[in-house]
Amino acid sequence: MTASKTPARLRVAVIGAGYWGPNLARNFISSPDWDLVAICDLDGPRAQALADRVGTNVAAYSDVAALLERRDIDAVAIATPARTHHTLVLAALRAGKHILVEKPLADSREHGAEMVREAAERGLILMADHTYCYTPAVIKIRELIAEGALGDILFIDSVRINLGLVQPDVNVFWDLAPHDLSIIDFVLPQGLRPQAVSAQGADPLGAGKACIGYLTIPLQNDAIAHVHVNWLSPTKIRQMVIGGTLRTLVWDDLNPQQRLSVYDRGVDLTQQAVDGANAAASMVSYRLGDTWSPALPEREALGAMAEEFAASIRDGRAPRTDGEAGLRVLAVLEAASRSLASQGLLSSLAGHDAAVTDAARAAVLR
Amino acid sequence: MTASKTPARLRVAVIGAGYWGPNLARNFISSPDWDLVAICDLDGPRAQALADRVGTNVAAYSDVAALLERRDIDAVAIATPARTHHTLVLAALRAGKHILVEKPLADSREHGAEMVREAAERGLILMADHTYCYTPAVIKIRELIAEGALGDILFIDSVRINLGLVQPDVNVFWDLAPHDLSIIDFVLPQGLRPQAVSAQGADPLGAGKACIGYLTIPLQNDAIAHVHVNWLSPTKIRQMVIGGTLRTLVWDDLNPQQRLSVYDRGVDLTQQAVDGANAAASMVSYRLGDTWSPALPEREALGAMAEEFAASIRDGRAPRTDGEAGLRVLAVLEAASRSLASQGLLSSLAGHDAAVTDAARAAVLR
Amino acid sequence: MTASKTPARLRVAVIGAGYWGPNLARNFISSPDWDLVAICDLDGPRAQALADRVGTNVAAYSDVAALLERRDIDAVAIATPARTHHTLVLAALRAGKHILVEKPLADSREHGAEMVREAAERGLILMADHTYCYTPAVIKIRELIAEGALGDILFIDSVRINLGLVQPDVNVFWDLAPHDLSIIDFVLPQGLRPQAVSAQGADPLGAGKACIGYLTIPLQNDAIAHVHVNWLSPTKIRQMVIGGTLRTLVWDDLNPQQRLSVYDRGVDLTQQAVDGANAAASMVSYRLGDTWSPALPEREALGAMAEEFAASIRDGRAPRTDGEAGLRVLAVLEAASRSLASQGLLSSLAGHDAAVTDAARAAVLR
Amino acid sequence: MTASKTPARLRVAVIGAGYWGPNLARNFISSPDWDLVAICDLDGPRAQALADRVGTNVAAYSDVAALLERRDIDAVAIATPARTHHTLVLAALRAGKHILVEKPLADSREHGAEMVREAAERGLILMADHTYCYTPAVIKIRELIAEGALGDILFIDSVRINLGLVQPDVNVFWDLAPHDLSIIDFVLPQGLRPQAVSAQGADPLGAGKACIGYLTIPLQNDAIAHVHVNWLSPTKIRQMVIGGTLRTLVWDDLNPQQRLSVYDRGVDLTQQAVDGANAAASMVSYRLGDTWSPALPEREALGAMAEEFAASIRDGRAPRTDGEAGLRVLAVLEAASRSLASQGLLSSLAGHDAAVTDAARAAVLR
């Protein structure tokens, strides 16, 4: 590629200089696709401090409107609390910016859907910051499932527990489960489109919100997904088991020496005619095959996400984790909240799936 | 103690020579409290083979009635499928035998309650074979909770998964969860007496019954217990986390070098008056203290259980895991079956003590 | 195979009813190849107790001579302290018995060599009880090396440490290292035939013998083997790493879920001409490939060893772990003792094959 | 503390912008004690790139002499290959700079001793960059040993293996063992002052230097230290076991959830008169007590080291890891090289310990 073909760098601002914003800023700074031009935070000195720390020509803003007025900014990355996403995103879209939003996409499915529609109508990219979907481990899991290495999915069991900060504005489902849900959505070929969801939670400390949560999601073909999120565990576990008819995969994100293990093991079930009375009984046999742990490249997820964000803008296509993916996560979180409010009863997602989809996707693809 | 003070050995027969019976037989053989005098199995040659293997003066029976007629037998240990417990136990009680029954106590709470009543009326011991309650780890957990080392219990999370045999007659809840439930019942000072239970299950292989199960049990004071049982996991996990206001305990039964870990860590929550509008906000602080792993004696659980069985007979007192404990486990299992049959809705245990429905029993197989 | 073709069972006696004898006895009892006919121990009641425990027609002896006079006994398995092996084995060979001897084969290479010669002259089997060589993991390692999966061997690092009993009559090298050495001898296609050995030890408790030991064994082609044995470690480690030019294998014997791991990783070295002055420099590149963990059958090593003992007798061939293998282990142990006595200096094994000095034997206890 | 009491920041330059220099630079930048004023590297553009990256007013030099001429620089941190330390340090000392040198202190003990003498005579600080000695884990180990928690030290076993770059100019001992040796020197109350050392190495790849190394160091009272360093291991292990008469400590640096474990276990040895013939035998008993894992603060080692460097300059005292500590490490490395050249024979350190010590320390303390 000759120098003249190199696309010009896109120009991005980060809104929110709290916990996650600095990570985004650092990755835009070191990306060949992006120029980080501004940091914005209601707390002006905090914006300035981050701007100073990450580079030399980064401006600081405490006023979003002023930032959005700048015509030379192509995109904004939003790392503020979820309840502010709707207002900020709509404003930024109306100012013509492409958008990357921290998870969860919004504080309600309705808000999220409005954001997705607005982006679609304006032909702008709205990308969900589902960071885990850009890690080498999750990309590999998606590939393995897509190529049929696991066979049909039987179950997904995800555990994400740690001694964590009790968040002031959201419960443990909305804080942690977006990770698990966005990953499940990403690795399943059909995405995460359950009919219903059941949730159980507990608030034993009296924090005013669930600090421990269990989420059960019936999948197609009688398969099941289950997510355990917990702010009160003294030990840190981040583990996902995906069982299939052919093989079962274990992802242990805290074991850098063997993050992924693929077990060539399983239970084979044969329906067999037995005595007349009993009609049929299940014959069970075991496979105890080898275990295989694929080598994974060392690549930082945020860097890959920044690249995808730029590519989707340049190619005028939906990014890998688009607004629709963000909506699917929100749909599950909302159904979980409804189930939580009704003693764990399965809460249907049907009827909540307003038809944003095809129109929105088509619009983005132009 | 002089020889004349040594109590005479009690005489026991084992009924059932399948998977568990031989373990019981071996432990009675090597116990100073017991003489194993007979093995009984419908499959006569199997009874004979086990009798030959474990000792020199052990008789073999294929006819239970004949066995129970023997006046010189003080007690029987029953290791047959759960659906046979009710009939066998009633017959044995009527023959005046003390009884140890493999878990679950019975195939329904109603059946179990009848067994408990019959034993009480006859002044005979009916003991549930909740083996884990006799392991050094579980005994230590009970002590730690009793002495207040954990503070108030906030949550219990139990995982028991493995590549396991799909049982012909019960689902994964009835097969594996009795372990978790009997342990929780044993370590909680007040026992396991929940108001309600919620269960989610899946049968992705089409085995005709749940092979993956999740059980949620609200406890007192907004605490929660959760049990994950799974026959389809390629990796074996047997782990229980018990979180308390003071400390949190992790029991990893597959780590012989550090089975119990007590973490002096936790989240402290302080309710604090803040600005007028918001009234109060939770202030969170962390404790990251030391971890402590108590040394455990090397003692086989079955040996301790055989000793307790003998002692309860001699002292005319309820054994540590008595029929009532078995009933509490059955109550939860039945409520789980009802919940499973109604989309995971919280199923109350109240009012089901006396009259257990056939519907619920049928649901066991769902 | 019809019953008439089934070879008659061989008849065996176990000498030594201490720690290891009962294990051998149990395996002969459950083997289809063997009839266990007698137990012998200087402590008569102990012999009787073991005989009673393991079967119904097992005789007990406290007098070896009386045992060896029995013409109906084909073979003896000797599980007594190493210093008694020479006398017992020679007596048993002279009585026409095939022999299995617990490791180490003898208390000196000279004694061992005499035993091997005597067996050879009489056409009798003399087998070393190198139990690990019959485990599925070690058999798999041998296969992988034999088929070239690891490439050329670069290094072997073996660690066998635990809080262990300080043995009354041998140091930690003679107690534990026979395991590591017999395994290395078994898995290397050419066996363990080093030119020299270096040993370092320590006796920090003043036990009168080394309780911590390090053994370095230069192998062919500048490869190296190293063994760490230690009675004083609070944690138990049994791990062997075998590095090859193509792949590296890790055997973690205490991890039943993943005993063997084969890493497709390594350092590639390319000699390359560089600038004129420097002639050549090493270019290094890395391979970070997948990891693979072969499934291993669940088979008890002692059962496989009993089978091999019988097969070698019936076929009139050397067993897999023959007396020569035992001698190779002894040669290394003796050289280690000499090295220990001379400040860790590399001690040659050449010339010591025939005439082992008393000095070296004395050094065993150092 | 009022602003007038705050000591002025010291001014430092980093020499060497390769692998380690950037880490030092970042830590000086974020230290309240230091102003980083310059980066120097023979490769000018590399120096410039690092200077640009870490701050705004950092100058870049490719000429050391020019750098050292600057009177406003108080100290230099040297992160260049070991063979250049002697020349650079002497030049910097002669220019009046305090010095922090990357490990190993020099490429020979003689060179190192000359550096220490020169610094002492000039009253300047010469500090060894023994980074691990500033980690919370190692500081805790030192405290535990100092307060007698382990009792007398019986053995130290250190393993530091990984798939590592084959270094162009040093073997694996000089590359990795300085870590282990400096740690052992730091945690032992008397420092690392062995009489002799034995080393075994291997170069199975033909790299022209040892890539696998074993180092044995007899300690006082028949204790022993052993270090295993290895560039060719596919798995990464960084573990040190320190056995004492009272307790044993395991430091697993790759286990962030439980870096330190203190085992209240051990072997107790009692000399006891036995039967007349045998005079005395060792009676062994076990303690299997609890395990305890102290909480460690999260503190970056390099930050603590920068603080200590500043404090030692201000207070005119030897830093915790002074030049003498660096010399003790060099003495062991040199003895190891001699042992390696003589077949692993114990190589004495006596006579190599020229009396730099007291004079030098006195001079620094002024």
TrEMBL record, chains A, B, C, D:
Q: Where is the Gfo/Idh/MocA-like oxidoreductase N-terminal domain?
A: 10-130
Gene3D superfamilies under this entry?
Answer: Dihydrodipicolinate Reductase, domain 2, NAD(P)-binding Rossmann-like Domain
Q: Which UniProt keywords apply?
A: NAD
GO terms for molecular function, please? nucleotide binding
- Top-rank taxon: Bacteria
**Coiled-coil ranges per UniProt:** none
| Residue span, GFO/IDH/MocA-like oxidoreductase domain | 139-246
The entry's protein name is: Gfo/Idh/MocA family oxidoreductase
Organism expressing this protein natively: Cryobacterium psychrophilum
